[in-house]
Every structure is written in C-alpha cells, then in structure tokens.
Amino acid sequence: MFRKVLVANRGEIAVRVMRACEELNVGTVAIYSEADKDSGHVRYADEAYNVGPARAADSYLDHEAVIEAARKADADAIHPGYGFLAENAEFASKVEDAEGITWVGPSSDAMESLGEKTKARKIMNEADVPIVPGTTDPVTEPEEVKAFGEKHGYPIAIKAEGGGGGRGMKVVWDESEVEDQLESAKREGEAYFDNPSVYLERYLEQPRHIEVQIVADQHGNVRHLGERDCSLQRRHQKVIEEGPSAALTDDLREKIGEAARRGVSAADYTNAGTVEFLVEEEPGRDGPLGPDANFYFLEVNTRIQVEHTVTEEITGIDIVKRQIRIAAGEEIDFDQDDVEIDGHAIEFRINAENAAEDFAPATGGTLTTYDPPGGIGVRLDDALKQGDELVTDYDSMIAKLIVWGEDRDECLERSLRALREYEIEGIPTIIPFHRLMLTDEEFVASTHTTKYLDEELDESRIADAQEQWGSADTGGAEDEESVEREFTVEVNGKRFEVNLEEHGAPAIPTGDGGSRAASPPQPAGGSADEETAVEGDGETVDAEMQGTILGVEVEVGDEVTAGDVLVVLEAMKMENDIVASRGGTVSQVAIEEGESVDMGDTLVVLE
C-alpha cells in the first residue's frame, strides 16, 4: 500500500479521496491555487502545496507543477479525482514515467483509446456492444456531414473527440445548419480539449441516460456494480442521479451491465470507470423497459464519476478505496455474483446557481449559514464550513447530497425531508429546484428523458420554487466583532498555517511579499489591482456573465457595424455571440482565445 497520496483536485472530491486514504492509513497531500488557499480540502489534508494562481491552466492543469508538488511531498501516488487532469492521458503518462510515483487510475494507453470517441466506438463495436449509428473516423468537411444526413436522416449530433458533458456537441437539424454547427463543434473541441477532431452520430431525440459502474484490476478481473440513471439533465449536464434505474427491468439492466463488462475487458482497462449508454424511451409504456429495448454505447469515463456515491450507497462498496487498492496491485476479492443491490439512492448536486435565472452561477458571497441535514440514510460530501467565502473560479458545484432508502418511494420521501433541513444562506443554490423535482410527476414516475428539463418543464415553476424556498441573502454580509485570521506561510512551496484571533482589534493588514502571495482571481487582462486599461474614450463591450473566450472575431483597426459578432463566449454550456451595439472601429481587444473572464470584464473597445 502507498505511504502518501497527492490528490490533484479540489473541493468535495479531494476531501472524498482523502477520507478513503485516511481509512487505509495513507497520508494525504493537497494542492491548491491562490484562490483556494482557505478551501476545505486544504484544511483537511495532512499537508498542502501551492501550485499557482487562480487560473486553472496555471495551477490545477499545470502538469509539471502538480508532479513537482508530489516530489516535494515525497508522495508515492497521485489520485486525480474527476475533472481537471483526471482524463488527460498525457498527464497520466507523465506520472507513469515519474520515478517512485503511481497513477491511481487506468493506464494512459487505455485512457487514450477510450478517451478518443471514435477509437472507443471501434473497440465497443468489435466487442459486440451496440453503438449509435455514426462514424468511426473523424470528419472534417461539411460534405461528409451532408452525406451522413442523406443516409441516416436528421437530426445529427456532431461530437468532439475529447468531449463530454455536452461540451463540444452540436445538433444539426437540417442541411442548412451543417457548416455553422461543424465549425462550432470543432472550435469548442479545440478550446476545451485541445483537439478539434469531431465525429458524427444519429441524434436520439428521446433517450434515457444509463451508466454502468465498472471496477477492473491488473489481474484480469472485471466487475460491474450496477447502473445509475442520469436522465435528469440540463444542457447535457447531469443534475440528479439515482440508482438503480426505475425505468429498467432486471433483464434489461443485466444485458446493459454485461455489455459494459465486455467492452471494458476488450479495452484492457483497469481501475474504476463508467460506461455510459443511451436507452431509447418508449412513449406511453406500461411498466419498465424490457430486454428488447434499444440501448447504445455512448462513451467511457476513464475516472471516478461525480455520482459514484449512488453506487456506493446501494452496494456498500467503497469505490475510491478500491481505486487505491487496485493501483497498489491488489486483486478484486469478490465475484460478480457477490454484487448485490440494496435499496435505492439519489444524489443531488448542490450548485451555487440561481435556477430561476437560467441557472446563473453565483458571482461571490459568504456562507453566513451552513447547516447540512442528517439522520438515517443521509450522506453529504462537501468541503465547506460556515463562514467560508465562495470560490467562483471553478465549477459551481459546492456539495453533493446523497440519500438512501429501502425503496425508491422511501428515498424520495427522505430526500424531501433532507432538502428541507439543508440550510444555506449567503449564496443562491439549486436546492429549491431539487425540492420542485421531488414533486414533479414526470420525475417521480421516472418517465422523464434527457430532454425533459430543456424542452418540457414549465420554467415558471422553477421561478416559483426559487421564490418560495430560495435564500434571500446572496450578498455575503460581513459583520464581525472579532478578527480571526489564518495566516499561510510557505517554505519551499510547502504550506504552514498560523492561527491568530484578536477581539476588538482592527483588521490585520497582510504584506505583499513572497513569490506566491495570495491574490484575488484575475479578471481579463490582468489582476484585480491591474484592471484592463481602456485606451481612449471609446465604448467598452463588456462580458455579461462569467465564461471562457472561444473565439475573437475582430482585430484592432477593424470596422464593424451594429450586430457584427465581436467575441464568442462560452457560459453555462452555451456559445454566446457578443455583438456590437453600434458601428465603429475596434481600438482595443482586451482578451484572447481560451481566456476566462468574469462578468463586467472589458472585452473590446469601439471608437
């Protein structure tokens, strides 16, 4: 077993991995950006190392900085969690090549094979796993898309090779959209996954999203741990996950589970992973979907999933500890027949978003009240405490509420009770939305599809739920009678903490020395103290929301007219064209492709 594991992640998943390590008597190492210096995963770890500024590309995604932190800490393994570098085959390969450090995950070769969707489709097809009709090689020209449409019909899904969670996927409803959507999918693939390659699939209009949890060791043993139903999605992003699926018969779930095992075995895959499928819904069905229902391979997630907790609750198997043991060379000690599903579990993603405002992420705030629920069958995965400042530089999910019941009915009732108990003040969350879903007829009956939230749910119901159950305080009030500070001192990059509390004292100024001193998150064009200097008296075009710059369509000196696209901004999984409100000459471009921006940041100046 390992001596010390560095967790190359942040927030609740970092704490989740650290808890598993602690139970295995393994030391833990956190990494953190300057924005995360006071975050919960840093508090929980045995030791912590600063890996860079707030921008993820310069910290959590910096390969060399993460590996160097592992060397400094003398860690002998790296666990990536999910997101960030978790599915980066290049990074996994670097860890594999690093002397004395083990990668807790599948091999980089398996990650590369299954991470590129066309390769994964070939592997699954050869393993007799059903795949959605589509291409097994990348496409580059609009003519290829049009030819596919003539053969298979519309709509068509254009998907990025390295995509996932809806990023890099565009739907073509007819031939007139081919050129624009192909270019858009390639652009997102390049921006998010450094890979502009795309492929085609027939777009299923009413599918359910069913995924199978897999664990596989280095001795040839592959087990599936049942399925999860992740059909409640918004813009292809999962919101609520549950298991087992109430929409499947036992015969169908066994067929899907065995297909997942075959595919993973054919890919020589090890460690934990998830095989995702689309199952065609049968409108007006009477009872669960039977063994003759159509299901198709979607993709393999070569990492631990956000919703792995659902499977842990219904199987009693600690998947994260299994990951660590498998990486250490241990053999799986149970047979497939030993896996038993007990009861029902649902996971609710607690996002710092306002569902009534198109799920807009919170732009800041303080957890003035944080009182999570408890009781039998209630689990909470978080990295929070009351008084924490919300870090807005990364994903908006701040916690996960997981509820177990003896059956789905009890689980729904217990979930409603737990969500009523969950008190968060100071920031908006989607708890009111979750409470609404637990009274929604389609969700309760488990007849919803992946399109339900985007196309069928009455949005006014979301607004009513937010008004009735949402937090009114979203500003993060500061009213302290004492000064309590946790100072961070770094020696050779390693973090040491000094706590100081003074009552009735003025705020304690902090120095600006040190090469890695903490600073506020950087807006476009520089730090908060060096905001973008607007040259001249022109009109500024500002970002209306947080997001990532996918494309800059103008250069200094360009003449534009009202309605011309200046910048393409991705926010909340949608491309947004930032257009000129009037004609003029571009006198300044304050951002560049791939840059993260905050609401209000200056993008372009027009004279």
Q: Would you mind describing this structure in some detail?
A:
- This protein has about 600 residues and is α+β, with helices and mostly antiparallel strands.
- Helix content is about 25%, strand content about 30%.
- It contains 16 helices and 30 strands.
- The strands form 8 sheets. It has an 8-stranded antiparallel β-sheet with strand order 13-12-9-10-11-14-19-18, sandwiched between helices. A 5-stranded parallel β-sheet has the order 3-2-1-4-5.
- The longest helix is centred in the middle third of the chain and has 17 residues, at about 250-265.
- The radius of gyration is 24 Å and the shape is globular.
- It starts with a strand and ends with a strand.
- Mean pLDDT is about 90; it is low at about 475-480 and about 505-530.
Overview features:
607 residues, 16 helices, eight-stranded antiparallel β-sheet
Question: Topology of this structure?
Answer:
Blueprint (H helix, E strand, L loop, with lengths): L3 E4 L3 H13 L3 E7 L6 H5 L2 E6 L10 H11 L3 E3 L9 H9 L4 E2 L4 H8 L1 H10 L15 H11 L3 E9 L2 E6 L5 H16 L4 E5 L4 E10 L5 E13 L2 E7 L6 H17 L4 E10 L14 E7 L6 H8 L3 H9 L16 E8 L1 E2 L5 E2 L7 E3 L6 E5 L14 E9 L2 H14 L1 E3 L5 H7 L3 H5 L6 H5 L2 H11 L12 E10 L2 E10 L35 E4 L4 E6 L6 E2 L4 E7 L2 E6 L4 E6 L6 E2 L4 E5 L1
Parallel strand pairs: 1-2, 1-4, 2-3, 4-5
Antiparallel strand pairs: 6-7, 6-8, 9-10, 9-12, 10-11, 11-14, 12-13, 14-19, 15-16, 17-20, 18-19, 21-22, 23-30, 24-26, 24-29, 25-28, 26-27, 28-30
Helix pairs in contact: 4-5, 6-9, 13-16
